[in-house]
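Lab notebook: predicted structure, single chain.

Context: the supervisor wants predicted structures on file for every construct in the current expression panel, including those that have not yet been purified. This is the next one on the list. No modifications to the sequence; it matches the entry in the shared construct table.
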Amino acid sequence: MATFCTLVSLGLLIFTTLVTGNIVEAYNAQPKQLVTKLIHWGSILSPYFNPNASVAERAERIVKTSATRIAYLYAQIKGDIHMNDFELNLLPSTYEPLFLVNFSMGQPATPQLAIMDTGSNILWVRCAPCKRCTQQNGPLLDPSKSSTYASLPCTNTMCHYAPSAYCNRLNQCGYNLSYATGLSSAGVLATEQFIFHSSDEGVNAVPSVVFGCSHENGDYKDRRFTGVFGLGKGITSFVTRMGSKFSYCLGNIADPHYGYNQLVFGEKANFEGYSTPLKVVNGHYYVTLEGISVGEKRLDIDSTAFSMKGNEKSALIDSGTALTWLAESAFRALDNEVRQLLDGVLMPFWRGSFACYKGTVSQDLIGFPVVTFHFSGGADLDLDTESMFYQATPDILCIAVRQASAYGNDFKSFSVIGLMAQQYYNMAYDLNSNKLFFQRIDCQLLVD
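Prediction complete. Output recorded below exactly as produced.
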């Protein structure tokens, strides 16, 4: 298995042009667009790369990661975790992320690989001095060695908007973020230069970005990521800094070799295709789910199936779960339709709470109808067989949609659209007009 040091070496090759010269004067103006490659958790550039991982092991990882994420979302919505502008929405100590954001910070530049998270409003990275950190965990941003680093004083206006912030004995704006497990990320709020390497070998830098410089990262078992890249909306978020517009484009998330997964910030993000109203509730992105079709057949789902308290017919769009989780009655309608179509065609392997069959997705589901999620405004999200099913073992396939209330009976109307449903799409968030755009496209066509 590749070590984090191997990854860092590859990252340093990418950023060679950054560390060999003074880039401060070269990039004075904030770019109107930033493009960065998203690193798939299973790719050779990832610290989680394992060339010997089996189909079953990869599938198990996706399922466990999704279950961990949904459990955390339950905890948040139930109010077990205090919601504020600096709350995190993942459990990095338990299971690995799905995609990592590739960027660099400081002068001289330090390469970073942070978890992409649409449910976090703050961006934080590990900083020196760091408790429980070693060189084997990869490079640390060292504030004492960066000419572009500055901590935020307690008097800074930004500090007053952070409920988790406090004034430390050095008159710096400190922060302390708690996870569901009781672990935390604690340090100081600061500003630093962020550097992005585009697909055309160009380099863009954004000066004085507010971030969390984390000196304490809890007793995490997993230290292979360098931080969290929050894509939520908030006064301190990077998305807000870049004009409140961003997009990400994903290929098949089961394919670690696809090299065109990307994240774009700014005015030139691709806003084409369908659009639907977007709501921000407690830092999460919600859209209005109105129904589901299988082929030409509109499923008979009660009109109140997707209605959550305060979020009528809402479904959460999330980057931390691969699977899609549906409200109870909606899941039952879809699961029953899948069983009717496949029973008698494939041999059932599992007759429990979700359907599995003997077979392979690529060969035995040819001709299976497209499943369509209908959102308000006439926006349709089409799921082909690779988005609706996953290969659990070399000869067993399972539905990639689950019942959300399976892990919490209080969430019979809770729905989460996961990354498997979003694969093969460019998902664009315009937080100024409160709209989500999605266009089915090969991400390679969006590369400059």
